[in-house]
Amino acid sequence: MMQTTRPRRRPLRTSLAMVAALAVAVTGLTFGTVLAEQTTTEPASAATASAFDPGNIISDANFYDGSAMSASGVQSFLNSVAPNCRQQSGAPKCLKDFTQNVPAIKAVAGRCAAIAGGTKSGATIIAQVGAACGISQKALLVLLQKEQGIVATNAPTNWMYQHATGFACPDTAPCDPAYRGFAQQVYAAALQFKRYQASPTYWAYQAGRNNSILLNPNAACGRKTVYIKNQATAGLYIYTPYTPNTAAMNNLYGTGDSCSAYGNRNFWRMYTDWFGSPTGGSSPIGSLDTVTGGFGQIVVSGWTADPDTTAAIRAHVYVDGVGKASLGANGQRADLGGRLGAGNTAHGYSTTLTGIRSGKHNVCVYGINTGPGSNVLLGCKDVAVPGGTPTGAIDAASSVAGSLTIRGWAIDRDTAAATQVQVRVGGKTLGTLSANQKKSGLDKAKPGYGDNHGYSGTVKGFPAGTNTVTVHAKDLSNGKWVQVASKSVKQATGYPWLAVDELASKAPGKLLVRGWAIDPDTTGAVRMAFYLDGKGLASPWADQTKPGLGTAKPGYGDDHAYRLERSGISAGKHTLCIIAINQGPKAVNASTCRSFSTPTGPPKVTVDAAASAGLGKIAVSGTAYDPDTTAAVAMTWTVDGKQVATGKADVQDTAFGRKYPGYGNGHGYAATLTGIGPGKHTVCSVAKNVGGGADTKSCATVQAASGNPTLLLDEVSSPAAGQVKVRGWAIDPDTADALRVHVYVDGVPKKSIAADQTKALGTTYAGYGTNHAFSTAVQGLTSGASVKVCAYAINTGAGANTGVCKSVTVR
After folding, report:
1. Residues 203 and 97 reside in one and the same domain
2. Residue at a domain's end among 703, 719, 753
3. What angle do CA 137, 142, 146 make, to 5 degrees?
4. pLDDT of amino acid 572
């Protein structure tokens, strides 16, 4: 993807003391038999080809170390690596002097953090991009040098700045102008390497397997199989997809042959020259995250790892310069995945140091080096271990009718044993409570003391009005009481609190009212008075249970609810007044008046189902009720505006009872309407009104029965010589008109007649009229012969002809 064949510059090969890893000596800080051993840092040196491993160009720890160099460190490096660079007339500034106005960059989830905008130096751009994306500033400096030579040059060009990291500059096409600019190039390259890391199996070159890698953009030069050992190396090959051939490695600081490519060789060589081995020889990295003081203890946590190994290293903890613990940094820290790699996160440490005296202490933690490098001070923090007089708090306090309910916590900081508290008002002690109850989370907030230091209880004698409540904890070392908390508490007084939760008339003549009433001056029940339209209705106590009321009104309890049900309320609008009788010193009752109406109005009727029930029949069902009564309402049913049946809506329907509580279940209906003619009909269920309102109907459109004709042979006989008589009737459900009837004798058609003679057919066919009979005689038949006589009713509309046959002997 990136350009690799360009004139090479021989980089500065020197040992740069200012970028060497700092060796932290911890000699003299002892742990008994455990010593924090001092190691040394190897200086950067010229690379040797034999040390190059194409499958491990740089370790993940070194490449993804976003805190490898600060902005000042990068600036010092730039000053040292090109000390003689001076801006030439008409040319851009040297990188050590370069600045750029950089727009703000938004965070990219899982890749890079946000970067603030502003005018920044080249060193600041490199440092901030590396920190935001978790890419080593050392790696970015090497990338800039191997792509454009811009770091060490004494004569930078605009081209170098515009294409600084070679991003979007393929070997086979011009560079993409969308990515021009120094800051744009540095950020785009860092973001790209994070993309490689976040989706390692998406790309052509992957760690942990053999990869066939080109030797040169010219495919004819061939390929080399490389087992890539880590993600950072895979990323370099994706970015610059060529591996050096033998000729390139034989002339490490020069050129090879026509099939040589130099990008990844030069990255490894430059990193080695400037910063030492890219795959090892590094000192530990990490941090001291938290130091928390508790009773006789200090809790310490953080992480540390050595870039030379993925194995856990040790962390040494010192308090006030004295070694206190040596522990393995092997705890899982998922947050390290972005920095050290997803499979390299077991580098957390945490310990609780006990037996620590109270007072202020200084805690330092060192990462103990493995292999080349030196031990590193991860950080120091000051911490206070508590001790001295008791401490505590009032979490909640409320007073009802002279009783104070209070809860909180109290700790004697010199001991983990439970202490006691006194609750005082105006210098008077109202009660003593033990602070030995469990309060979840207290040990987390006050480490070492445990959770069992909570107190709660109710004390008597709280004066009326607003008072300051103080809590005093006993100092167990000398028996003295020490004030640890105070809170202003107001004791409520006045006329009752009155609430109406529901006032309704859900059925004829019914009244339901419920709610609650509390007099703030007492925990006892309140007397109630109910007046309906100005007349006394009832006077119960508000002493029923309402769950949760005691929580809403602490100290009073749940038993202050009222509920009143009455029947026989006349229809229409009413006013109910509710009065809570005052119990306290202020003789003012609480009252409220509400309007309500008993149900009235026209009936409510539904047609839930309506359909043909066969020839001449329609079945209809649903519900009907009148709001003015719980009795079943009278019903009539009409078809096309004509009344055809009457009845009542008195069928049991449990679904109705659930939907309309108070009216009962007996308000369903089901009727079968007869005498219905062919075609579509409008069927209406009509509920007769009771009380206010008028009759109500609900209608549906129904298609009458359809299909084959109905045919009946009343007679097939031979009344005279050579003659057969055929008589019957036929109706087609699709029409009220007369049908044609065809008569066959021994399969030979003999007659075609109309079924239009008069014959009473009963109520089932009342809608079809009476002219559907037929009668005919067939002459000229052979006397003595046995013949089969068939009559066929010819279908109209949907269906097929209907035939009926009978045998008869001709006279």
Report:
1. yes
2. 703
3. 150
4. 85
